[in-house]
Every structure is written in structure tokens, then in C-alpha cells.
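LOG
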Amino acid sequence: MGNDARQLLERVEDLPPLPAVAARVMTMADDANSSALDMAQVLSSDQALTAKLIRISNSAYYGFARKVSTVREAVVVLGMKQVRQVAVGASLMNSFNGRRIDDDVFDIDLFWGHSVAVAIAAETIAKKTRAARPEDAFTAGILHDIGRLVLRQVMPHEFRSAVVMAIQGTPLHVAELETTGYAHDEIGLALGEKWKFPTHLVDAVAHHHREGLSPEHDGLEGVVALANALVLHYGLYCGFDVEDAELVPIPPELDRVETMCGGIDHLLDRSFAFIESASGTPQRWYAGAA
């Protein structure tokens, strides 16, 4: 356990808030009285988010035959739950992507590649096992490592040392605790609470490194933990590459969830499609990918 993450957040003056539109969409998606037209009107107030929503709706990630040209059509075609996923994912990327740090060994494209892959894997596991709502699994997957971006922003030199240790073989969550005194999962929990995310989402963020969890017994926490373990097993690390990393044989519990996801190649393809659509430009985020 690290230092008090809530106190760390209180000291950060320029911590980006969850954009107001994404926060509103989070609430509306679970409100039975909200209509597709209501959500479309809220989304339309953010031009950048509207553009991304339409772009993602027409991307290979969804593969719809019909062309989506308005935000209302996107809400109707995708559904309110899916729109929530896109809005939160794209908003988080925008909120934290602006700051570049000199001599940074942490790769923000790799970070989002890892996060999106975990989100898509978690969503699929939730659908297959019915252990959690797929939209919750996607959101928790996108959010699960967000505490690392806080550490990178607040303690850049200490966090850089942690990443160097990770490149040399120390698990990053172990290295960051040693160099910064904070644990990214605890920061993610505190940040989720600050943004008023539902308790079950922030609990999944807090426990995504806990071993022995399963979807059947632990619900959303087990879904996200296994999704994260699967992505890490294949070397899709969070913000860094490891030269010539050797994969050990996949454990049975991860083999099961990989099968649920249609194989690692299929998972990667979907992740690339989402990242490229959300960003507007192709990005290299996984050195091992073709």
C-alpha cells in the first residue's frame, strides 16, 4: 500500500477534470427517462467529441454497413450504452494527452493501446460470462491505469525512474511504489471517486492487479483483472517496450479468456481500430504488432 492518494490529488492544481459532457453522458446512459435525442443534444455541445463519435461509428471497430453522418444517428445506431463508452474513452484521451515531458521514456501511445486493449477484452469477457455489464467493463478497462498519468504529471522524474526499472524487468507497479511512494491503482480509485464514478467501477480499478480473481466469483473486478493479465501476458505493456521479452506458456485461465476474445490478433485489430478512430491519426502503440 502506498501513500494517501487522496492527499496527492488535493495537491495537484492542474489535474484535468472529466469533461462535463462525458460526465453527463455517464449519468444519462443509466437514466431510463433519457432518450437518444436527449443524449444527442448533450453530445452536440462538444464539437470535438461529436466528430470523434461520428468517426468511430464509421470505423472498422464497429463495421456498420450504413454511413453515420450525425450525432443523433450515432446514438441510434450504437445505443446509449455504447455511446457512453466512446464518450468516456475519447474524453480521457483528450484530458491527459496534452502534456509532453522532456526525456520521457513513457510512451503515451503505448499507454492508450494497453488501456484500450484491456477495455475491449473486459467488455468481451463481460458479455461472454454475464458477470458484469459490458459498458461498465469497457469503462473500467479504459480507466484502470489512469493513476499512472497522474504520477507522470506530478512526479515526472521519480516516475521516469520507475519506467526505466520496468524496462529492465521490474513490474511497473512494484517500481513506481518504490520510486514515488504511491500506487497507481490507489490513485485511480481516488480519481474515480473525485470524478464521482460509480463505486463498482472504482473498485475494479483499485483491484486490477489482485491475483486469483475470476468473473464468476468477483464480477467486474474479476473481469478487469483477467483482461489486464491477458494483455500483459502478450507484452502489451503500459507505456513502455521490453526488448526481446519472452512469453511463458499461457496459463489455463488466460487461455480461456483469450478464446472468449477471439484470439489476441482479433483483440489487437479491434484495439487499433478504436485508437485510430478516437485519435484521428494512425498511431504506433505496440512494437510487436505488424
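LOG (cont.) second protein
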Amino acid sequence: MSCPGKAIACAAIILGAALAPGVHAQDFPTKRVTLVVANAPGGGSDLMARLLAQKLQEIWGQPVVVEYKPGAGMVVGTNFVAKSAADGYTIGQVAMPHVINPSVRRDMPFDTVKDLSGVTMNTISHVVITANPALEANTLTELIALAKKLPGKLSYATAGAGSSMHLTGELLKIDTGIDMVHIPYKGAGPAFPDVMAGRVQIMIDPLHSSMSYIKSGKLKPIAIASPRRAAIAPNIPTIAEHLPGFSVLSINGTVVPSATPRAIVNKINAAFVATVQAPEIRVRLAELGLEPVGNSPEQFDAFIRTELEKWAKVVKAARITAD
């Protein structure tokens, strides 16, 4: 900047420009905030968003509106966020497709790392492998042995091709050298009856949606895909106990356009962390089978990068593409 003869005025302008982001962040938010859900209303993502929005509204003293933009495996809604003004007023809710889509979809309209910044991982939920009660295998060790004895004869059901559950199964196959056939369904609903009837031997699905079948004895648990046991089912061992380093977490997180000033990102982070850690919210999350996290933007960004690399390798090895 050149300000000949106007040094004092120039200095004031420069100082004002430098302080503007901080001042803006200090006052944020001063108007309505939109929380974008990349799924249709009525599902788990919707419940989570409305739960967060209500508490955020109390913290900020400003309206927090949930807006739905479903389509293309969550790409439509996340793309809307990536292309939005980088002022903190449009926030995106993301889940596991956020780190899987770049590997399974050829024409991504945004760059997951360059165009979006992580705010925080809100919650995690656990993925569980269950089986028909009549299956010979009762443990992961026995399942692997049975699959090796019967290559290509065992099948596992998931809620859809390219889902985190599907990739969990493929990662297990890669890490153990077993051969199981994937049977994708359009949602978990129609898959459960087939597994319970023995038409498909194995099911991979979120733990919270499988718990009622486990408790009733209609399905037997084999292992949790998370690196640690689940608080709601501590008796179910993890895959990592047999295969050290194995880790699949189903997550719910928050992102904003990458150009959003860091001070605003930190302000949003603080509000979301306070929200998921609030006692009344923790109770509701537990009812939904979710465990609160609330980590830093840097930690969430690091998780995203690591997961992108991991699933890219799995997708390539398994030759997975989106429907």
C-alpha cells in the first residue's frame, strides 16, 4: 500500500485492516447462522443437527437454522458449504462420506482438503460386525478361520455400496486375506431380516442400530471396528484386539469454507465443543448411541487427511465405485 503524505491515515487503515478479523470474530455471530445437513430430514443426521442447533442458539443468542441439501452421497450439501461465503455463517455437518467420497466419486465439485476446514469432530459412533446366531464362528478369530476355510462362500450385508460399513468389510478382507462377498442393500432395514434368516451370514452396521437385535439374541456380536470398546457394549471385543491398528470410526463433524478467518473458526469450535460436552446434550447423544468428542480444528483436519489416505487405498484395492 502506498500513502505518500498521509502516513498517519495510512497507518490507521493498515491497523484497521489487521484488527478487522479479530474484531469481527469477537462479535461473531451477529445474525442468523445456517447449519447445512447434506441428508434428507428425518434421519440420524437430522436429529443430531437439530440437537446441536438448539444448544448453539442458546450459546450465541442468535438463530441457528438447519437447512437440508441432500444428494449425491452428501456431496451436494457439502459443496454448497464449500462455495459459501467464508464468514462463519454457513456451517456444514459432515459424516464418513466426507472422507470416502473423494475416492469413490470421479467428479467431485470441490477439494475436500483445500476448500473446507475442519471445525471439530462432534461425535463418534461404533461400527459392529454381527452374525446369524447359527453361524459356526462366535469370535473374530473363528470368523477369519471359517472364511479362509470357505473362501467366497460367506457373505456380509451393509446399508449400501461405498458406505463406511462396506469399506469396513473390505478393510477387514485386505488386512486378513479372507474372501467374503459383499451384499449391498438400500439401507439397513431390509438387510437385517436376511441376516437373521441366514440368507446372508454377516452384517456390518452401526452398533446403536444393531443393539436391539443383539440384546434379543437375533444377531450375535463378533467385534467392534473402533480402536477401543464401546461404552454401551463393553463386552464386545474390538477388531484391533486381534488386528492391532485396525480402526474404523463413524463420525459426525463440522466444517466451514477454508478461507474462513481462523479466529472465527476457533469461535465456532468453542461453541460446538461446549455444546457436545453439555450434560443435557451428552444424555441425548447417549440415547442416540453417540459419544461426544469436541476436539480442535487442527485435530479434526489431521483426522480428515489420515482417513482420506486410508480409504483411498482400500477403495483402490477393492475397486469400489459409487452407485
